[in-house]
Amino acid sequence: MPNAVEPPVASPSSLQDAYALLAKGGYRPIAGGTDLMVQLTGEIGEPPERVLDISRLDRLRGIERNAGWLVIGALTTYTELRRSPLIAELLPALAEAAATIGAAQIQQRGTLGGNIANASPAGDTLPILLATDARIVVGSGRQERTIPATEFWIGYRTTARADDELVLRVEVPLVSDRRVRFRKIGTRRAQAISKVVMALSWSADGRAGAWRNVRLALGSVAERPIRAWETEAILEGARPDEETAERAVAALAAEIHPIDDVRSTAEYRRAVATRVLHRLIREEGSR
Ligand SMILES: Cc1cc2nc3c(=O)[nH]c(=O)nc-3n(C[C@H](O)[C@H](O)[C@H](O)COP(=O)(O)OP(=O)(O)OC[C@H]3O[C@@H](n4cnc5c(N)ncnc54)[C@H](O)[C@@H]3O)c2cc1C
Predict the structure, then answer these.
(1) 117 contacts: CB under 8 Å, gap ≥ 6
(2) 0.85 cut: is pTM over it?
(3) Which of 49, 62, 134, 228 has its CA 20 to 30 A from that of 253?
(4) CA quadruple 110, 157, 90, 68: dihedral positive or negative?
């Protein structure tokens, strides 16, 4: 057991103070701590030198509708997502995803901003953010900037966020006829890291029944959460029938590059990802 030394903790109550501390370097933000606390002993990953407790930054809280956007503060917990009437109305797939994360204890503490910044390829909310064209707002003493979700997770546990930036909020564009489906495959119903996680969104094209604006995003099948662009191209303009499902599955099998690890094999992940997609398409076709 490594001889862990408790890192010093700062708990600013204003964003400006938080930014000033981050600019000094050496500080790692802590929100719910469900990922970071595991690293404090040094047994998993590099323990932080100093910890910046962001829980008093009230500007990072809240869920609201702002013109054509659903705006979710970075400190929003999974329990808050599950209980929010606004999420239930505007993006129920996110409440569904929140309900699959860890179990009640983790959902009470863990935050959406933490899931985003932690950047695990298995982060369960991330495919939903990719599939809904969400954007992530980050801030530092220098500026606030908005990063499309598609440009945020750039490599294995690597993001477009600089070390002195905080994730402030997520903005999801509201599209009136958009449908979003979410599926997570894990070993158990709770406390299970995803073997495959998928979000699919589309708009139904009236009488023709064809899908438009299709977005397909997956986690745990590559080094980072990804959009499956080639599979989307197959689905775009197609009707959700057996033939479409077969073509989409062939495209997806070629497009994803899962790995073997302690949770699953690459072969299993590929088989499950394609079967889940096949079933989602057929379910929608039979409605
Ligand atoms: C038992 C257990 C089960 C879990 N199950 C799941 C699961 O099913 N699905 C899943 O996706 N995850 C799961 N997790 C991982 C974790 O709970 C989530 O990733 C959670 O969202 C992390 O949020 P947090 O607020 O606790 O982050 P923290 O631990 O506080 O921080 C995580 C990382 O993000 C950074 N960070 C946090 N907030 C910000 C911010 N606003 N700006 C900049 N950087 C920030 C921190 O510096 C740190 O690097 C599990 C963890 C445990 C311990």
Answers:
(1) 29, 159, 161, 167
(2) yes
(3) 134
(4) positive
Ligand 1 centroid–CA 113 distance in Å is: 8
* Candidates 3.30.450.20, 3.30.465.10, 3.40.50.150, 3.60.21.10; CATH matching 59-173: 3.30.465.10
Assigned token pair, 120: 């695990």
Considering the segment(s) 9-53 as one domain, its CATH architecture is: 2-Layer Sandwich (3.30)
Q: Which atom of ligand 1 is nearest to the CA of 74?
A: 41
- Domain 178-285: give its CATH code: 3.30.390.50
Q: Is the CB of 102 under 6 A from ligand 1?
A: yes
> In the chain, what are the domain boundaries?
9-53, 59-173, 178-285
**Ligand 1 neighbourhood includes 258 CB (under 6 angstroms):** no
* The predicted structure's pLDDT at residue 6: 65
Sign of the alpha-carbon torsion through 78, 228, 283, 195 = negative
Residues 178-217 have pLDDT tens digits of 999 999 988 777 788 888 999 999 998 776 789 999 999 9
Mutate to test the pocket of ligand 1, among 11, 19, 22, 34 (most ligand atoms within 8 A of CB): 34
Q: Which atom of ligand 1 is nearest to the CA of 124?
A: 11
